[in-house]
């Protein structure tokens, strides 16, 4: 069974984990109602996605 001969330094461990952080959600603005919406998501206010209304809005 392979066992490391020496402990990895904190610096080396940190370098390896540098890409594991949680990244911010990318936000775009809905062309229909101009509200901030995460990319690749149907707009919760107007139901607009990729140039067409996908879900009818329930606001009355």
UniProtKB/TrEMBL annotation:
Instruction: Give GO BP annotations, semicolon-separated.
Output: translation
- Keywords, alphabetical: Ribonucleoprotein, Ribosomal protein
User: Where is the segment annotated Disordered?
Assistant: 1-25
Q: Does Ribosomal protein appear among the keywords?
A: yes
Gene Ontology CC terms, in alphabetical order: large ribosomal subunit
**Any one GO molecular-function label of the UniProt entry:** structural constituent of ribosome
Q: Is the keyword tRNA processing assigned to this protein?
A: no
Query: Which Pfam families does the record cross-reference, listed alphabetically?
Result: Ribosomal_L32p
Could you tell me which SUPFAM superfamilies the record lists for this protein? Zn-binding ribosomal proteins
Q: Which HAMAP family match?
A: Ribosomal_bL32
What's the family?
Belongs to the bacterial ribosomal protein bL32 family.
Q: What PANTHER family does this protein map onto?
A: 50S RIBOSOMAL PROTEIN L32, LARGE RIBOSOMAL SUBUNIT PROTEIN BL32
Output this protein's name.
Large ribosomal subunit protein bL32
């Amino acid at each position: 069974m392979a066992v490391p001969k020496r402990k990895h330094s904190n610096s080396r461990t940190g370098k390896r984990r540098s890409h594991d952080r949680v990244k911010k959600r990318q936000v775009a603005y809905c062309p229909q109602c101009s509200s901030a919406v995460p990319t690749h998501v149907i707009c919760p206010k107007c139901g607009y996605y990729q140039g067409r209304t996908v879900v009818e809005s329930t606001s009355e």
